[in-house]
Amino acid sequence: MDLPIGEEIARRRKHRGVTQQELAAFMNVSKASVSKWETGQTYPDITSLPLLAAYFDCSVDELLILDSQLSPKEIQRIYQLLKDAFQTKTPTEVLALAQSFTKRYYSCYPFLLQMGSFYLNHWDLLPDVPVEGVPKGQTYEDALMEAKKNTYLKEAETLYQRIMDQGDSELAQQAKQIDAYCLLMRNKPEEVLAILGTKTLSFLPSEPLIAAAFQQKNQLQQAEIVTQSAIYQYLIIFMSLLTNYLAMLTQDEEQLEKNYARGLALSESFQLAELHPLSLLNFLAAGMVSFAALGKESLLLQALTLYVKTLEATPEEIVLKGDDYFNSIDEWISELELGSQIPRNSGSVKKQFLAIAQLTPLFEPYQEKPPFKELFQRLSNLAEQVSNSQRSDSHE
């Protein structure tokens, strides 16, 4: 179920005998906002919850009507509220909220897994931390970002370790994988290999067996959901592997071009520009960097053209979804830990992809060169649109 806070606000307001307008005046919002809260159309800003609780003389937990164990929908809603808080609140306020929720639900391991994801995906937006010296050849800004990354990824690793120590086997396995990713981001390759091993194990997926069992039971719709959701996941994983492989191949130009061509063909076959633009953008970004490093101008132009086109077509709010091929996965997506939302705010994600193209030094020689110049101008226009949209959101 969704968070029942709207019904609880309405119940407590009526019990106190106050109007929506009176509550709105106290909260410094419009009457329409209160009405939308009570009907469940929107939720109060997460940082306004303590004030609402104080007004009704109750705790935030009582207002939210949450137990120590959260449902998947409740986890999704809290994660979304924390993501949105970056638009209107300071990094310090957002961190305090995240820590408060983590402490309150420290025994809810699925929630801890997603809070680890929150730190992993937002460490750069969280408050600055002390910098213990600036290494030679680094700027202070570089040293600060490295310190922030280490600080907040360690926070995530602490949560993952708790899950591995206390959680069920499936959650613990997920935590183990993401913990290894955090260590990789912190340049700890030996620790990654110690956790995951050094060889690829035989891959024996269970989905074909589950789907076949549903077929034998003549539950064909369930069989199709299982099969489609498996294809969807493996497609995204496959694109991620091809992306990583691209970055390894600057010493083997022939293999680089083969890998790029096959990744592009896969993307076109499954229409990834519409289905899952982030996986395509990551792939194209890796190709662009490799082509620029090797001076392969025609391939760079091809990749950058598709990159710009995909960014322009990517909707303002990026969500996980199916299409006319993956036409049976909506229910499966809704049951994921974060539902259809992506781990990071859509506007921030777009800004990251724009920065890759605009700020990577390897691309500088091409920025004033036809026909690249027109593409970089389109990127500048798009960057301005994203910034304007974020400013508009922060004032709502």
Structure description:
The protein has 396 residues and is mainly α. The chain has a domain of 194 residues. Helices cover 69% and strands 0% of the residues. The chain contains 20 helices and no strands. It is globular. The model has no long low-confidence stretch (mean pLDDT 91).
Lay out the secondary structure.
Blueprint: H1 5-16, H2 20-27, H3 31-39, H4 49-55, H5 60-64, H6 72-85, H7 91-104, H8 109-122, H9 140-166, H10 169-185, H11 189-196, H12 207-216, H13 220-248, H14 253-269, H15 272-275, H16 277-294, H17 297-313, H18 330-334, H19 346-359, H20 372-394
- The percentage of residues in β strands lies in under 5%
Total strands: 0
| Number of continuous helical runs | 20
**Low-pLDDT segments, ≥5 res:** none
**Shape, please?**
globular
Q: State the distance separating the first and last CA atoms.
A: 27 Å
Helix amount: 55-70%
Radius of gyration: 23 Å
Largest β sheet strand count, sense and barrel closure: none
Strand and helix order: HHHHHHHHHHHHHHHHHHHH
Nearest-integer average pLDDT: 91
Structural class: mainly alpha
Structural key phrases:
396 residues; mainly alpha; 69% helix; globular
Structure, briefly:
With 396 residues, this protein is mostly helical. It contains 20 helices and no strands.
